[in-house]
Structures are given as structure tokens and as C-alpha cells.
Amino acid sequence: MASDAKAAAKEVQVEPFPLSTLRHSVSHLMASAVAKLYPNVKFGFGPSIEHGFYYDLEIPEHSLEEKDLRRIEKEMRKIAKRSPELVRTSLSRDEARAQLAAQDQTYKVEAVDLIPKDEEITFYTHGDWSDLCEGPHLDRLDRDYHFKLLSVAGAYWRGDEKRPMLQRIYGTAFWTQEALDAHLAWLEEVKLRDHRRIGTDQDLFSVHPEAGAGFVFWHPRLGVVRHEIEKFWWEEHEARGYKPVYSPHVSRETLFAVSGHLENYGEMMYPAMDLEEQPYRVKPMNCPGHSLIYKDRGRSYRELPMRWAELGTVYRYEKSGVVHGMLRVRGFTQDDSHIFCTPDQLAGEIAGVLDLVKLMLTTFGFDYTAYLATRPVEKSIGEDAIWKAATAALGEGAKLAGIPLELDDGGGAFYGPKIDFKVKDAIGREWQNSTVQCDFNLPERFDLEYTDSDGQKKRPIMIHRAVLGSLERFVGGLIEHFAGRFPFWLAPEQIAVIPIREEHADYARSLAAKLEAEHFRVDCMDDPSHMNKRIKQAQERQVPYMLVVGEREEADGTCAVRRRGTRDQAVVPFERVLEVVRDLRSRRSLEVPALDT
RNA sequence: GCUGCUGUAGCUCAGUGGUAGAGCACUUCCUUGGUAAGGAAGAGGUCACGGGUUCAAGUCCCGUCAGCAGCUCCA
């Protein structure tokens, strides 16, 4: 560790430019190479980004393909050698505009007008190529660094879907070959963990053209995973005073007119179906239904807080280009809950929710960061005093729960402030699932009330919260987080029992029966294929433990335990195996520990 | 939805306008194997779907559906 830190410090000393500057300069280098190869190119923006850089460009006569990237890389190396000096120059606004217009760089002309009036307009030039850019940049392009162009895709000019679509080239750059290689290896790892690939390989889920894009079919092997998660979820919710509610998937359209979803969310909703001349809609959210339950009779302050939970399946129209495996779908189940409480109870309720979020995320092995999102500057509803109080209550709740908050200023919903969680998975990617939102809007729209101790009708606050977000997205993310190697309590098959020869099958079956009697998920692999093959199959299905049994084990009442991903052959009494797996399951442990005697 | 690419066996993929292919998986038989693929045979196809060009289309063109990389949007 110490030597790593020293090496890193040394690199910083040797290279006076930050990585983002390197990448920005390499994007310029790339642009100049493209200009050489395709003289009619028009340029958009070309910034450095988290893992590299991109440049947006328009080449009227050519659609770039992967193979063009190799040509461009070659040209880049040539240019870096031939014209290494990067020169910064400054022009007046009119000169800049005139120069870019003369070059027919229409997007760049527009870019000039985006620069604030009091700022200097600068260009960076190497060789005969020059780009409007505020910098900063490397001094020379022939410094020692390493880059690779990665992919091409379309991107709207200035991110606006009403504007022309440009071609975008993504690439990355590092100071050392090792760092570049490490990043490319990371990209490979991302591919290997792709839940769609693992989903197919391990027979977890599927989507079908017959059913439509964005509708997920959970296979039995993933069905158990979900079921285990749901059991865990209900256990923890019941322990915290949540009551299950169930609401219908289809309701009269008027319900969503009352809730405001028709007006504000209508584009995401499936169109109406008419029954006896009444329009009905499939629900895009669960909250209107829960509001109806609240409203069904008068409520007293004595009843509050009320915590209602539902694994509620909702349907939303998502544009065809955005559906993605289990992560972005058109029908999904939210682990939803609505808490109705008084303003005084808010902080305590928030603390309870945050505590639950912490427990659940930790159980799945996620690190997390929580963000407090405050009142948006544009449109939002409710009095400022309520916003202030609710925001303070969120902060206080977080304090009570011992969760530090980062600030997401102005990131709240129009109907109230919220706390969002970002989790970091096993390879450092961020996902957003958990959310806790205060809502002043729906109680208003549904005219929800309770009678307070002073006999006055008052408006409850509604907390919307989801811990996992949606089961589809969460489990899709889990597959990637665990790379298909689910912890013992979640594994589709927890234990494989493998008799070496057919004559050991009875012993194997007796062990399997004992495990099944305790409701472990066991595969007794007593088919007559070769043992090595069965071990390979179990290994490929990521079964946490294999119990290999032959003559010796049968004689001693033991089994040879092989752990997933290892070549362990620990011979232990079967009773010991039982102890360990009972413990792993009851603790919902993330470990698959080695067994020894 | 938009731009580009792709769609051949359950999976991964070859396939030059002229008779549909491989490996793995599957089925059957043989194999009795001590920790990641034993052997042989067999079965499996409306080349996504619908049009078109052509003597002839898996191959070329158009449309639809679906997938992939992004963009926009999102749990």
C-alpha cells in the first residue's frame, strides 16, 4: 500500500497535468485526425468525461464504424508526432464567429454565442487544426501517454432530441499503459457481469418478442431469488410496523385525474381501455390506490403514523430505445410503501425508513451515499414554511439514523423534498434505487385528513419510499453486483450433492433428503454422467457448496466439501455442513466460508 | 422515439447470389469415473417476419418486429 501511494505521488510529480486535461487534449487530437480523414466534418463538443472523453461530430458523407476507429487512432499518432505543440490564442467574439463561419463550422459558431459575454474567447491550435476551446490543455501532444478509441454512437447536438443527431466517438486515455490496460480489463469485467448474459447462461430470466419489449419473465431459478428477497423484505417491514395492503392494477381513469398523474405523467401511462363506456387505466404508481384506502373513512391522530407496504406492480410506457434487460422495463414491481403521519412525527418516521434502508443495503453488501434533495428553483407546490420544516425533518431523521447526508441542492420533487441513496456495487459502479420522499401534493389532491387532538381536521404528510426501488432493477443490479455468484441465502441452488459413482447415490440422496427437510435448495446430481462433468456443471451454475461423496465419506458419515470458485476438498462430518449452512442462511451472510473439521 | 449496427439450431458463432454448417447443450447407447468437459450415434432450421429485385436470395433492396452501442428520458 505504502509503495503504491508513493508510486502514485511520483506519477503526479512527473505529470503536471490532471487526467482530465490529458483526455481533453486527446479528444482534440482525435478531432484533428478525423478532420484529416474526413475534410467535410463539422464539430460539436468534445469534453473529457468520467472514464475518458468523447467528441461529437457530423460527417455528412460517412457513418463511422468500429473499424474506422483504428484508422483514426493511426492518424492521431502521426499528428501527435508531427505537430506536437498546442498553442493557445485569443480572438474577439466577432473574429471568432467570422473565422468559424468561414470554415462552415456551424455548431462551433453556435458555441461561440454560448460563451458568457465577459469571458475571453480562446482557441487551441496544433498543426493546421484549431478548435474553439477554453482549455486547459497539455503543452505538447508528444508527451508519454496511452489512449484508445472505444465506440461510436449517435448523440443529439446539445443533448436536445429536437436538434440534429451527430456522431459521437468515445475514447479514453491514461498516462501509463498499465492504467489503460486496467481500465480496458475493467470494461471486460463489466461485460462479463452483464446481467443479460448471466441471465441467459444461468437460466434466470427472459424477454420475448411475443410478449413485447420491456416485459420480464422470471424463470424458476430467479424466482427463488426474488422470493427470498421478498421474504426478507416482509420480515423487516412487519417488524417495523408496516401493514401489507394490496391495490388493483387497473382503475378508472378518474382516479388518475384526481391524483394528477393523467396531467403530469400521462405520457408515461398506457392508453385507456373502455369498459361499458368508462375509460380505465393500468396503474403507473401505487400511491393513488393507497390514498383511496386512507380516505375510505375518517382518520384520527391516534392512528398515525400508518405505514402501508405493497410490492406493487406498475406499468409505464418507456420509449423503445431505452428498454434494457431487467434494468429498464415497462412493467415492474416497486417495493413501495406510503407512510401517513403528522408533521411532528416526520423526523422519527424518516429515521425509521433510513434505518431500514441501511439494513437492507448492507445485507446485500452495498456501500451507499445519501443525498438530501431540497426545493427545486422552478415550479414546486406548497408553502415555504412546510418545505423548510420537512427538509429539516429529513435532516433530523438522518441524524437520528446516523446517516450522513450530502446535499443535492434543488434536486427535490415538485411536491416535496427527498433523500435519495446511491449505492456502489462490487466494481465501483453507482446505482440509484432507494428513495424517501415527502409529499404535500397528494394529501391535498385527495383531500386527506385526520382529526387532531384539538378536534381540528388536519392534513397528514405522506411519505413515499422505496428501499429496493423496483425488484426488476434491483435484482438485475444484484446479478451484476455478485457477478452471478449469489450469496448462500439467495443462491438458486445452495448445495449440490455429487456421488462419485452410482453405488454412492443412495448416500448422496440421504444427505440431500436431510437438507431438503430443512428447506435448503439442493440438487442431488446422481445422474450417471461422469463426476468431473457434474462438478463442472455445478461450478458453472455457481452453486455455493458441492458435497462430493464416495466410499470413504459414506463409511464415515462425512462429505468432501468443494466451495464455489475453489478446488477445496475439505472432508467434514455432514453435521458440520448442516451447522454452517443453517448459520449462513439465518444470518443472510454474504460469505461462503471454507469448511474444516 | 432518434442515429448507427445486428438478427442463421436452446447457446456461441462460420457461411463468395447457386444443395443449411461447426462447437457446446439435448436424446439414446456404451463408459464405474476421487474434484472444471469419457466415447459413439442421433435428433434439432419457415436463415426474425412481410414484401420486392433476380433464372436463382440466408446473402441484394424496402418495410415491420426484436436485440446491441449511445443520445434523450427513467424505478
From TrEMBL:
GO terms for cellular component: cytoplasm. One of its GO terms (molecular function) is metal ion binding. Its cofactor is Zn(2+). It holds the Pfam family tRNA-synt_2b. SMART domains: tRNA_SAD. Keywords: Aminoacyl-tRNA synthetase, ATP-binding, Cytoplasm, Ligase, Metal-binding, Nucleotide-binding, Protein biosynthesis, RNA-binding, tRNA-binding, Zinc. Residues 225-487 form the Aminoacyl-transfer RNA synthetases class-II family profile domain. InterPro entries: aa-tRNA-synt_IIb (IPR002314), aa-tRNA-synth_II (IPR006195), aa-tRNA-synth_II/BPL/LPL (IPR045864), Anticodon-bd (IPR004154), Anticodon-bd_dom_sf (IPR036621), Thr-tRNA-ligase_IIa (IPR002320), Thr/Ala-tRNA-synth_IIc_edit (IPR018163), ThrRS_anticodon (IPR047246). SUPFAM superfamilies: Class II aaRS ABD-related, Class II aaRS and biotin synthetases, ThrRS/AlaRS common domain. Its EC number is 6.1.1.3. One of its GO terms (biological process) is threonyl-tRNA aminoacylation. Binds 1 zinc ion per subunit. Belongs to the class-II aminoacyl-tRNA synthetase family. Homodimer. This is Threonine--tRNA ligase. It comes from Rohdeia mirabilis.
